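Morning!

This is the sequence you dropped in the shared folder:
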Amino acid sequence: MCQPRRWWWGLLPLAALWFAATALLAPEIESELTHRLTTTVAKDMPWIKPAIEGRDVFIEGTAPSAASQGRALAAALQVPGVRLATANPSEIAPVTKPFTWGATIDAGKVTLSGFVEADGMREKLLAEAHKRLPGLNLVDDMKDARGAPPEALAMSASALSQLARLKSGSVALSDNILSIRGTAADQATAAAVTAAVKQLPPPLQIGAVDIAAPAPPSAPVAAAPKAPALPVERPYVWQASRDGDVMTLTGSAPAEVARLQSLAGARAAALNGRVVDQLKLASGVPTGVDFGAATTFATIQLGQLRNGLARITDNALVIEGEAVSAAAYRAVTAATAGSLPGGLKLERAAITPPLVQNYVWKAVRTLKALRFDGHYPDDDVRRTMISALQRFPNSLALDDTTSIAGGAPAGFGAALALGLEQLSRLEQGEASIAGGRLTISGVAPSERIANEIKDVAAKLDGPIPVQTTLTFPVSVAPPVAPAAPPAVAAPAPTPPAVIAKPAPEVVAACTADLAASVKSGKILFESSRAVVLPSSQPVINQIADVMKRCPAMRIEVAGHTDSSGTAGFNETLSQDRADAIVELLAKAGIAAPRMKANGYGSSQPVADNADPAGRTKNRRIEFNVVE
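The structure's back. Tokens below.
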């Protein structure tokens, strides 16, 4: 017979023994696992810093790639005694281009800076520095990154060999371009270093070489003065200007490595153009500003302009100029609308769209479609064009190939609005602006409407004259009707049917079905366009089915965007996307009067636009039941 009261007291000493054994053996187990990991896995992957708790291993350290991190986890699990191995997937070195590295020597101290691959390159470079510069204080300021060129370690070792021959100075690598500056003990050493640098083997290429040395003394002289510190600039200014194929850099850079990084970014942005380097070295970069990230961002934007400049004063960015294309205009406008990298703040962005000499715009209406071609000057005119669609039947298919461009004649927006207003009154036709003239042509439904359009055109007083060429159906007298038969008394009229208002429970059920259909999937668009992706069609079909089952339901289709881009562009895009959904629902059989499309741009966020996940939530289509 089981009598727990007599034996459960025996569990207490057993539990005490288990806790004591765990406390005593855990440090020994962790120490043994650390030794095994260090002598096996970490031996071949020096970036690994294993953290051990019991028999569980957490792989710390910046991995050179996701594949390398995966191999480390697999190798750790093969170590006897390891139960579980995990790693932080975000601890993977970023890719940096150009790949820069440098070293300075001054007053018995050697500082290594720039980037190294996280595959053991750091340890090998430190060993090379100790070997070539023995007895000096070594400071490691290098950061892990990916993107090192082939033979990066050998090129860095060659640079250290030349640096060791100087009393003070620096070497810098930007990919495979080597620059060296400093002071040698005498002129002979300076000449030898200069000659040796110019004869270094490929893939090294020579950038700036500036080796100074004191003149040979004719009598005992004082020791050579220490190289002067960099001048301090206040305010700190960097600028890149572009004139056609030539990009010029002026202002300051805080170090040779930073100068080379800025120069490489300008060369990448200028494509095949020429880059003129007029940068000087100076200190004074404000706290919180990442010079490399800030100047790289600025040159990327300038690379999308035909003419213009990008200037950074302390942390304030000014960018202005003419975009090379409509797509480039949108890209630069969007990039400078949100938060900027490198600690920058936008002071002014004055970007103009590409200039078009022969400015043309055209709207063509057929029985089945409405097509827009040509250019428009700004987002206000774009909104006017989109708003005018409300005058046309929803059954017309829309084909819009217009793009933004500069060079529109004065009065363009008013002429476009007038052209679309009158085109909406025609059965078929065209409204176009070309050669400084608005032309309206087509078939009017009647002579009266044709005359009214002509009167509007004749009375218009503006910088753009109007020309009309309109036709209309010619009325034909109807044939004489035969004598009417004797009148027959009409039946008594049937009283009109009374349409009952849906019961509250019916309304609630329809609203719930609509909400469930909206949540069944996502409505997605092409990036920065009002083109609905095919994957969204099942959701739209479900919404159409609900509205067919609930014929009294009327809805608002509300378009929303995140805060990227200008307010005008966002309002236009959200309206376009809402209109696109209404058009698809109309094609699915929903009557147009039951739907209203409204675009709210970024004015009604539901999440933080500073966060990528928040911006995704803010880009949405909402369906609201209208009473």
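Headline: The longest strand covers residues 305-313.

More detail when I'm at my desk.
O.
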